[in-house]
Specification:
heterotrimer; A alpha/beta (590); B mainly alpha (291); C alpha/beta (378); A: Rossmann fold; 3 domains; 14 strands; 12% strand; B: 291 residues
Amino acid sequence: MSVNLASARLWRGVPQAIAAIIAVVALAFVVPADGYYLNILMQAVTYAIAVSGLVVVLGYCGQISIAQAAFFGLGAYGVAIGMVDFHLGFFPAWLCGIGVAGILGLILGLGSLRLGGHYLAMVTISFQQILTLFLTNWLSFTHGPDGIRDIPRPSLGPISFAGGHAFLALCMVTLVIVTLAVWRLKTGRLGRAMQAVRDNELAASTCGIDVFGTKVIAFGLSAVLGGIGGGLFAGGFQYISPDQFSFGESIVLLTMALLGGVQSPFGSLVGTLVLIILPEWLRFLKQIYLAVYGAAVILIMVFLPDGLWGLMLDRVRKRAKPILGEVEKLPLLTQTGQESAEIVLEVKELAKHFGGLKALDGISLKVRRGSVHALIGPNGSGKSTFINVITGLYKPTAGQVLFAGQDITHEQPHLRNRAGLARTFQNIRVWRGMTVLENVMVGGERPGNDVAEDAALVVERALAALDFVGLRGDAHRMVGDLSYGHQRYVEIARALAATPKTLLLDEPAAGLNLTEKHELGELLRRLKGHGLTILIIDHDMKLVEQVADHITVLNFGRRIADGLPREVLNHPDVIAAYLGEPQEAAGVVA
Amino acid sequence: MAIFLQLLFTGLGIGAIYALVALGFVLLIRAASVVNFAQGQFAMVGAYILVVGVNVLELPYLLSMAIAVVLMAVFGIVFAATTYWPLRHRGGLPVIISTIGASIFLENIVLFLYGPSPEVLPGLFDSPGIQIGEVFMDSQYLSILVAATLLVVLQYLIFEKTLLGKKLQATSQDKEMASLLGIPVAFMILFTFAYSAMLGGIAGMLVAPVLFVSVGMGGLIALKAFAANIIGGYGSIPGAILGGLSLGVAETLGASYISVPYKDAFAFAMLLMFLMVRPQGLFGEKISEKA
Amino acid sequence: MILSRRSVMVGTALAAATPLRFARADDTIKIGGIVPITGPAAEAGKFMQNGAAMALEKINAAGGVLGKKLEWVIEDDATTNPGAVLGFSRLVSRGDCIAYTGSIRSTQVQAISPDVVKAGKPVMFGGTNPGLTQAGNPWLFRCRPNDNYSARVISDYGVNTLKKTKWAIIHSTDAFGTGGKDALVENLGKLGITPVLVQGYTNQQTDFTPVVLAVKQANPDVVSSYFTFENDLGIFARQLRQLGVTAPWVGSPSIINTTALNLAGRALFGTYGIADYTPDASPEATAYATEYVKRYKANPDNQSTWIYDGLLILANAINTAKSSDPQEIRKALIAVKGYKGTEGTYNFDEKGDGLRGYNVVRNENGKIVFDKRIDFKD
């Protein structure tokens, strides 16, 4: 390997974490022995663990959850009921609590199958409320509103955690490990998938990411982290009752995450500390301190958009260095292509109706391996609908799609991508929360890709793809900082990193200026030269003429011509469609 | 049967309260895409203003209400200016959090200013209610039902029959297009906040004689009202009303025939059921994103 | 070199900080207290502070404790359990309190109980859950009768005085309500009675129609109740009367507290309540009421009397012990017998329970009238 890559190192962050563990253990033992500091630190540390769960589900995956206190409570009740009623040890009881929290988290995540945004928020609120009612009213199991007292603390072999300092040390060590794990998650494959889902679900699904599965996992992980924190909370305070895990507490946890900065576990750490300590500092205000706290929340939201951590980071952020060094070229570039007779993509009698509107009305076409096939037609002719049906974003009303001999008509979008179908979007869909490199890495990480299982190779592949489109130097910039045309190249690089069998380009020239269009034409010719199968949709005739081997023309959802470029472009129906008969075109929705 | 009718009446009364608060929610969702977690505190603030008017200044009841409604409109604009306006370009979540901050602030500032004692407000009418057959109709529930109906009719007339209403609708559908058409979008949004605060305040004033006036009176009502919104269909006005009424009836019947302690669970269980089976609610549009 | 300089600096900082901390501790003897200043029970917190202020004045007018003035330092518990834990541990970390006062809410006392054991100093409290003093925590001293007695008094009065046998019990499902309900069912059982209705509800309801209809259907000849929040009690009372239930009603102490009387008004006329404190019950109670009304222009209730008694008993005990040593104070507290307080006559036992009976009172058109005192020996 010729590149040295920080984000791929196995032990990344571990030395710092070990140093942090030593530091926090030392800290835990010098905390004043009287209850106040122990209690407040115990609360801050256990809350911080739960809040890091929100970093995963909300910060990384973009799914709002207002039930973190419920998962926190499940962990706490697991420890309390397990130890007090079932006489389990602390650690088995803790695991039970975490397990229950995790399972319920996964189930809640299933709700995200059909729901997003405010709906999902409401589902989590409902879950939170119902759990509180059960904790309060199911007397025989939860001890009801009395709560559970005299929860013992654990010992592990010769080490006893019965003392306040020792237990605080255990909590702090757990926090360090959790923080390390959450921090590393962000730059790992799963973390990138989550961020892709957060930034643009459709693009994620067409890049091989199982959007639904990723959300469910994010919910599960978040719940598990809540459970971990809750179990320690129960051990720390040795008394729990349902009102400690109420809706209000979920709001507090959410506020902590957002205040600190939901994009980083360090942010959530800062937010938790501030919100635990702030009300304590404000105690001198007596009756009015909660009012001041409420006002402070608003002010923080207004003046600290990225949270406190974002603010700190802005002060110290270093310019990211480009990654130097030779990388192995895209495998595509080692081959030279020839059009063959083999059919890669075959569409039979495809139809898609939106209510009464027949956007596609029985389209058939065949794309041959190694060819550049263009699909053209006036606005509203059904081109974009066509590509959306092919990639699985729309369900067809009738017809069949065969790809590489396989019937993919009813496959999920991410499975089509994994089979080798990659695409770009007309209105650019890059993941704006990530760097250029990370965007392209997600493409390379699609399950089944030759490099997918090795992080270092994925980086190399992504750099190679960026090399190919000429954006290597911008690899570490945030993708949103790039020009429109370059963002389109990022999309193409992302698709190429996935080693596709067929590349679908949805109006790649849209929004580009003349120079950029020219560059795009060059790029497509190079791709064609290496034998990549391309289905391109555009109405820029010049571009299409330059690269296409075969053209299909749609109008009003029907195929009006199909064949070699010269024949098709001279076809009278095509000319009529393009020059337009206004009275016919008038009824079409653009 | 008598019991069922009694429960039905009570359920509708409670449901009308949810519906009124839900209506305030809906308008903000439509006009400004804001989910306002302080909507319940709007009700609380309205009720306290009425307490000041009736119990402290000893003004006539209806005059106090009128003053309170006007003050609520002002309050709504101040609320918008501080909690929504600076965050309007930053998406839904920051605004949600800032309204949560506002709800904490409002509860505690009222606690500080007015003290923790719950206050008693007399009802609009002297009579406690009317007995019809086996069913006792509480006069306050009756006035809530009447007021809710009037407000719904009024709102329909404003939204559907006036130019102001048309402009509001245009704003809620497409802000850019609305501003191109010369509609003062900022004014429309502020107006909506004022109107929404008025609705919340009226709900608080109507419910005050039943629930008493306390700092925490709005919290749970607002949560139920939000649930009513989703059951009815997110952002739908008839949905908010029907959702509120059906929620009130369902939880009252559920409490009586199934379990009282789990009463609050019915509302949320009903919500979960709706979200799983019919996420668009009773009147909502299909949820989908265009590629 | 660097290391040693740093340690010197730390040492200096500590040296500078330490005397500051103890410099003021000598002026007064301090008792720490958690008080609900914010949250739903902030109301009770105000009454509580009134009662405490009166007690302090009385103590200090009589010469204070151990020759110094007594001071009551407070922290907010925000009416939540975590708030109570933090408030209490903040008091403990001051390091200069020789004893504490706790909460009237049982769950809060339960929440701070582990910290009380760690602090190892007496805590006077008002929560009535019987379990609190029976779980082996030697430092908890209760200044109100516990719920076993409330249930015994309610059942005794209802069965033996009112001669009623068809009982309906309405209770909050929180710790207080459930504990009271259980004790009431048990005590009625001992008198050979099974209630016709036992109905729980969750705190902070908007409507009680389903509960009232259940009562109506069960057709009891007496209604008994354990309500936690006055709002709930007020709504229930109004709807009970509206829907035509007229059976006599014997309620737990919340039925006669000032807020409930204010909220429910006419709906509570004619009800019976049990009260740990009522002004007519004893000369001590009357004297307290007269003084309280003079100062605060409001009627006193048990939110203020328990802390008044608690602080006075504590001050006496410290003076008897002639020491601020917690063990000595504890011994002196347990030795308290026959102390006549506003809540009744205190006889502390080893577990820390001081009172064993209640007053029964009647609401006569909004005025609370003393009916009889029922005390038990065990």
